[in-house]
Amino acid sequence: MSTLRGKTAIVGIGSAGIGAAPGFSAIELLGQASLAAIADAGLSLGDIDGIFAATSSHAFPTLSVAEYLGIRPSFFDGTNVGGSSFEMHLLQATLALEAGLCNAALICYGSNQRTAGGRLVSMSEPQWHETPYKPRHPITAYALAASRYMHQYGVTREDLAEVAVAARGWANLNPEAFAQGPLSIEDVLSSRMISDPLSAADCCLVTDGGGACVMVRADRARDLPQSPVYFMGAAGAQWHRSIVAMPDLTVTAASESGPRAMAAANVAHADIDLVMLYDAFTLNTLLFLEDLGFCPKGEAGQFVRGGRIAPGGELAVNTNGGGLSCVHPGMYGMFLIIEAVRQIRRQAGARQLDKADIALLHGNGGTLSSQVTAVLGSAAAL
């Protein structure tokens, strides 16, 4: 068990421009979400002395955030490992707070990807050994992994479709979700093929959106308006950068980050009430369910059948609708945090889980490259 367990807590969350926010820049959406999170925490802008940020729009994100918000932070970190950056920021902010390097840490993100361009693109540019093949990033890489996974384990497109249908079921309970309405297995199978075997319905949304959270030390958290959501543990793992360097296309570094994060948090699978997975593609959910230990390798397709991860199922996965149906503004990891906090606070409305004391979050960056797992919990979980 980590000495960091329960030492810090998330005390504020905020979002802005979820879906489409025409006329707003990435930094404006980030700023709106940040101000909302700070207000939610019962703090003022002047209280923030730590900044943790990664964006797909700014080469020097903490400089841009500090200037835009008018903050002179005593500690800052712009670690960018793709969409999993924000789960890593939870750990980094906890380390900084515990070391006394800052007293109130803002973790933030913003993107206007939909209204600025509207295409699914990635910062994971083709590497020198991939360029001759003219891949379309990131879809080509994930389709390659999906093809191998399906071949090796007999997983079908119908199994992948179960993930998309479950996500839509949750999105239909979330008024903030961008994609709503009926979605069937057949709808997914008949949607336009993008990169075989992944269809349009197997791919995440392209949206705008800003998100932020505020962390403080646990002793201070108890005096603020919202119920604290405690940091219980986190761990990251990286095995490759380019998909062609991935050791095994069917096994991600989540198989390393997950067990380490759960050990740090001192939790077992049976303790976890909510699983928030970075579902950039339907494949991700299957791979991560296996690599994080919720089912054996190769059995996730069977595991999700029959609505097992949908509303009313045995395991609550991506209760906001995920990147597939709720929001995906280029980097999705911040929104895993926001939904977990809402559930643990019991502020999730129609999709609120009966029991939501411990949430496992798993972020993914690059082409199945950067894997970061974090565990958050209520006071009861400690």
Short descriptors:
382 residues; alpha/beta; Peroxisomal Thiolase, Chain A, domain 1; 9-stranded mixed β-sheet; two-stranded antiparallel ribbon; 13 helices
- Supply the helix-strand structural class: alpha/beta
Which range best describes the helical content: under 10%, 10-25%, 25-40%, 40-55%, 55-70% or over 70%? 25-40%
Number-wise, the strands total 11
Number of helices: 13
In round numbers, the mean pLDDT is 95
Strand content: 15-25%
Task: Let me know the CATH homologous superfamily.
Answer: Thiolase/Chalcone synthase
Overall geometry: globular
Summarize this structure briefly.
The protein has 382 residues and is of the alpha/beta class. The chain is 33% helix and 19% strand.
What does this structure look like?
- The chain is α/β, with parallel strands linked by helices.
- It has a single domain (8-117, 205-381), classed as Thiolase/Chalcone synthase (Peroxisomal Thiolase, Chain A, domain 1, 3-Layer(aba) Sandwich).
- It is built from 13 helices and eleven strands.
- Helix 6 (157-171) crosses helix 10 (282-291).
- The termini are close together.
- The mean pLDDT is 95.
- Pfam families: Thiolase_C_1.
- Residues 236-377 form the Thiolase C-terminal domain.
- InterPro entries: Thiolase, Thiolase-like, Thiolase_C_2.
- This is Thiolase.
